[in-house]
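tool=predict chain=A
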Amino acid sequence: MSKAIFVHETGGPDVLEWEDHNPGRPGRGEILVEQKAAGINFIDVYFRTGVYPSAKMPFVLGKEGVGIVAEVGEGVARFQPGDRVAYISANGSYAERIVIAADLAVAVPETIDDATTASIMLKGMTAEYLLNRTYKVGPETVLLFHAAAGGVGLIAGQWAKHLGATVIGTAGSQEKCELALANGYDHVINYRTDDFVARVAEITDGRKCDVVYDAVGKDTFPGSLDCLRKRGLWASFGHASGKAPAFEISLLNQKGSLFATRPSIYSYNSTTEELDASAKAVFDIVGSGAVRITVGQTYPLSEAAEAHRDLDARRTVGASVLTV
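tool=predict ok
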């Protein structure tokens, strides 16, 4: 018997309960993982609050983690006991032990520690698909990334700068602005004190941006659209402040024949080949030193509720990790 963080009803951080948990034995195509660390992400908040409904109740929270393979099920050739693996897209990572499909896991280089690995799987692979595939960022790109001091934002800022882009960000405090500036951003706008639409126009001499990456949602809409040049792309990949309101598609025409997309890591890494390639790109960029990882907070797994209180209050900087 092991322990896990359960949700019996949706709501605030206090609904997270530390309870006994039996993950069971791995079936065909599955592996049992002894967890070392689990990542904390906004998608966990969406499931905790019911914005994203869970398929069952109660359920164990969490989507990503890192650990050691303890047992393999029938037909698994990809891993063997003792292998160090990380994963995304699994359900129930806030646990001491978890059974997952072997095809959801990737091998982890020994050069990257557990806390870093747990903090870069979902966030790093999100940055990878956004910068390399949702919009191909390069030296001519001018981009705006909201929540620049968040876990994804800090990785994306450094990665985009490595690709040669002009990187503009937004953040909610002077401290967070300074952190983003130290992590690849050329310009960071404090959206609490400045009009980010006006500042983007000023910074770009009226040209505006090729792409806006927006995980904030309600608070940055429709301002994000007003930061785009004609035929620019709005990539809405989250809604930390609440869902952006529904809008008539003709608004995209009115703003300059804009493109809009709602990408997700699951559709961009829906095959084992895509998953392996994305993970390799993340491990390579981190291993090269071009992207440095900021693990701002670590919490014991049993204190996941406290971690979520800090996340809800926007007291976190960089990545947050639960340790086992």
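The chain has a mean pLDDT of 95. The radius of gyration is 20 Å.
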